[in-house]
């Protein structure tokens, strides 16, 4: 896929996640690795339901902001995941209401625990 096609797909995915209630307001971030090795990410304060392809941020894996709107502060976390796991090509980072509520429950057994590996 070309960079423009990847930008358009990220916009569509963001809109889909937002319309299904997986993301509200400016909570959550998306990123993916571009064919040139740079990172395409959602900008700071962006609503996933209102992304614009031309405004998405491009950042090097070393953290240099190349183009687009200012990247989200979460891009540092995304960069670390890509650098430590070369098999990772895209990240969807959401703050689902249901999972946030679930994480607040006390007394969850091991059957409900998310393993450390799942985070990366």
UniProtKB/TrEMBL annotation:
Gene Ontology MF terms in the entry:
aldehyde-lyase activity; metal ion binding
User: Metal-binding as a keyword?
Assistant: yes
Q: Can you cite an annotated GO cellular component? A: cytosol
Alphabetical list of Pfam families matching this protein: Aldolase_II
**This protein's record includes keyword Nucleotide-binding:** no
- Which domain of life, per UniProt? Bacteria
InterPro entries per record: Aldolase_class_II_sugar_metab (IPR050197), Aldolase_II/adducin_N (IPR001303), Aldolase_II/adducin_N_sf (IPR036409)
Q: Name one GO biological process term.
A: pentose catabolic process
All copies of domain Class II aldolase/adducin N-terminal, residue ranges: 8-120
Q: Which UniProt keywords apply?
A: Lyase, Metal-binding
Q: What is this protein called?
A: Class II aldolase/adducin family protein
Organism of provenance: Escherichia coli
């Amino acid at each position: 896929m070309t960079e423009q096609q990847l930008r358009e797909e990220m916009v569509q995915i963001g809109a889909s996640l937002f319309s299904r209630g997986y993301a509200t307001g400016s909570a959550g971030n998306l990123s993916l690795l571009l064919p040139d090795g740079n990172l395409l990410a959602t900008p700071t304060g962006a609503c996933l339901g209102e992304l614009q392809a031309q405004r998405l941020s491009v950042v090097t894996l070393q953290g240099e902001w190349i183009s687009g709107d200012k990247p989200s502060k979460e891009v540092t976390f995304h960069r670390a995941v890509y650098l430590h796991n070369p098999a990772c090509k895209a990240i969807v980072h959401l703050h689902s209401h249901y999972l946030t509520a679930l994480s607040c429950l006390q007394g969850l057994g091991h059957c409900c625990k998310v393993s450390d590996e799942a985070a990366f």
